[in-house]
Amino acid sequence: MAEAMIKIENLSYRYPRTKKWVLKDISIEIHKGEFIAIMGENGAGKTTFCQCLNGVIPHSHEGKLKGVVIVDGMVTAETPISKLADSIGMVLEDPETQLFTTIIRNEVAFGPENLNIPIDEIKRRVNWALEVVGLTEYIDEAPTALSGGQKQRLAIAAALAMLPKVLVLDEPTSQLDPIGTREVYNVIREIREKHDITIVMATHKSEEIAEFADKVLVIKDGQVAAFDKPWNIFNDEQLLKDNWIRPPQVSALTNYLNDRGEMLEKFPVLLEDAVTEIMKWYKGERV
Amino acid sequence: MSLIEYHPGKSFMHKLDPRVKIFMMSILTIVIFMVQNFYVIAALFITFLALWNNAKLPAKNLKNYFIFMIGLLGFIILLQTLFYPGSHYILKPLIPNFVPLIGGMGALKWEGFLFGLLLGLRLITLIVLMPLVTMTTPIHLLALGLVRLGMSYKIAFMTTTAINLIPTFESETQVIMDAQKMRGMKDFEEGGILKKMKAYPALVVPLVIGAMRRAQMMGVAMDARAFGAYQTRTYIEDIKMQKKDYLVIILIAIYAVAAVVINYMLQGR
Q1: Which end of chain A, C or N, has fewer beta carbons within 10 A?
Q2: Which of residues 173-232 of A touch B (CB under 8 A)?
């Protein structure tokens, strides 16, 4: 088994001036190079969980933190966020607030500049990161000139340029249209294929998760409801219902067929598998 | 109609080193406040307008701003005309001078009018000067200029980010006002001054809350990008003082001294 990149032991967290624990006793390990999707209904604690990973909790929020979060060998509660930034990159939900320069080149260079990286290396990284997200042609433009999907890709490039070992994305596509969402996922796939970066992403997009994620962490009321391969998650109808997770459309179709007594051999969560299965069933029917 | 947003160009002002521009802005601001003579301020004003023209900055923004300012200027001039001490009456006092405390009230005085005009002109001159720097310098170079002048990066970044956010807040204000109008709020358009003033909290409260939320999110995003992780940092762009820049500094200094000297010569007469 690969080494643990993120190790979480008995993590509980409560916001200041509230009694309710938002996260309750979470213990999981995430390995190097994995893509973990975090799902759960709104208010389940997805964002809080993400903020625990990159040290925003407990550094920028008061409140009570119990347990230990270790990212790349650093205990988050004891390491300043800006130092954690060396290992962990972050993309937020709102594409606007995380961009604060007037030229895209500077936006991407901002992180590496803060890390005291030599100029030539920064320039190489800027070109590389913009190429990965497909924004090379806009290098001299203003971030405000970009569309929502492009802005979110820029935010990813800005995080990538710091060469993080872990990339945390907190619902990066929730404000984007389907095309913007695809753009972002294509970039993530690109990163996964060519670079050994561990990715943790909170999201609601079932189709994309089924396609891309190694494992899905379902959080319910601050607790781990499930932590398993996407296939197992989307196969568990009760789990999905309990957490208001919409199954991928092909899985929904299969469930519908199953309910009507038309059993498919295997339960598909990907479109391709579904097509194969349905073709088999259809042919079997005709013969 | 922002007077702050960077306006790309290749003019004389655009090519100056940010440090020279910061120097120019601070020195000339002091001069504007030191100078008492109407003609000298008018000369400064015209010089700045010429530089505006040279830098091809959009005159439309300025015009809109002046229209916005006219009310304020009128008010300043009126107040000064009424209350500035003087003996050359445009209009005799409504209350005779011998009445204690309120004697001499209601008079319009020539000296006050001139003083009000001077104050107004000063304000306008300042408003023309500022954008000459902010609109011709990309915000990151302005920050770099401040850093090279000895300001800490954190403070320089905060300053320039604040400048950078003004257009954002302008548009956010517009969004909130539109949203309120769409729900039937007419006070901003039709109401009298009192009604407008009563309507402002409804505008300011969401604006401030939005700003605070935005600031918090920005803080998180900046932390995540290692802002302030180390004492030093790299800058991918560098600024270098050219011969021309030193020359311009000397010219500005001469110009400033000349303005002040001429001012006192004219005052002395």
Answers
A1: C
A2: none
